[in-house]
Amino acid sequence: MRDYLYDGSFEGILTCIYHHYYTDRAAGIYRREDYQPSLLHGYMEVETEEDKATRVYEAIENKISTYSLRSIYRAYLSCDPDKENKILRYVLLGFQKGHQLGSLHGNPAVHDMDVLNKKVGFEQERMLEFVRFEVLDAKAGQQVLYAEIEPDNDVLELAAHHFAERFRHDPLVIRDAGRNKAIVAYEGHWYVTPLGERLAGGGVVTPDGTVMELSQDEIDYQHLWQTYFDNIAIKERINPRCQRNFMPVRYWKHLTEMNRS
Q: Using an 8 Å Cβ cutoff, are 38 and 29 in contact?
């Protein structure tokens, strides 16, 4: 029995589960860069192998359920520091119980998975509510809708389909600033890509060095909105506690009305 160290990818976790069955039992699964050596057992660095990951992926789908496979992936997107081991326990139980797994909500392994899925789903819904777009000028006069988020959980791709469909005819970019990646969408199609840094003036630098600046109309509209927000408020009735209940403070950073130039 030993700890398995992986590269942080979903396929890496599945490869570790494969080795649990065919190489040596896993005492735990940990991201390589976060691992603290244990005195109780050794460790093995596991290289992600697509064919092994695919075998485990298909086994989960066929022997447990498609629902469980989706639950495992959503748990992988969570920020829980022990998510890999919760996934491992869930999969091991699933291969024992098969299709019955979905009804065993009282089992600790299933309960842990339900909790992670609930947290990820809740934040996904928050993203659909709180994302704010700006208009950037791109190449050849083309304009792009741009938004920046910093979610706790890695929910960017879970929200991608919603925005790609809703703004089907508008090129858009949503960047996860904490993870420095973005979804790029147009005409209903989307993909995930690294994205460069945000400029102090509100523009964005793409990985190829292209600079996209705030359009002049966007700057004017932001100024109008901030002025309206300041003047419509009744200062004697401002209630920060109520504001925080409806819009948690950690989202304020990317709200136009909360940013002052």
A: no
Question: For the chain, where are the E strands, in sequence order?
Answer: 2-6, 26-31, 43-45, 134-137, 143-149, 172-176, 181-186, 189-194, 204-205, 211-214
The pLDDT score that the predictor gives to residue 172 is 92
Sequence-separated (6 or more) residues with CB below 8 Å from residue 6: 12, 13, 15, 16, 29, 30, 31, 32, 46, 48, 84
Residue 257: band (very low, low, confident or very high) from pLDDT cuts 50, 70, 90: confident
Q: What is the phi/psi pair of residue 162, to 5°?
A: -55, -50
> What beta strand segments (E) does 7-93 contain?
26-31, 43-45
Name the amino acid, one letter, at 170: D
How far apart CA 20 and CA 16 sit, in angstroms, is 6
Dist CA 214 CA 146 (whole Å): 9
Q: Say if strands 134-137 and 43-45 run parallel, antiparallel, or are unpaired.
A: unpaired
**Which among 110, 101, 109, 83 is positioned nearest to 8, based on CA atoms?**
83
d(CA 16, CA 19): 5
Helix axes 83-97, 10-22, angle to 10 degrees: 50
Q: What local confidence, expressed as pLDDT, does residue 201 receive?
A: 66
Q: Which residues share a beta bridge with 137?
A: 143, 213
| Strand partners for 204 | 198, 212
Tokens of 180: 């420095």
- The first and second tokens of residue 230, run together, are 């300041």
Q: Which helix (H) or strand (E) holds 85?
A: helix 83-97
The tens digit of pLDDT for each residue in 47-67 reads 999 999 999 999 999 999 999
pTM of the complete model: 0.85
Report the interhelical angle of 83-97 vs 50-63 (nearest 10°): 50
* 133 contacts: CB under 8 Å, gap ≥ 6: 145, 146, 147, 172
Distant-in-sequence, close-in-space partners of 200: CB < 8 Å, separation ≥ 6: none
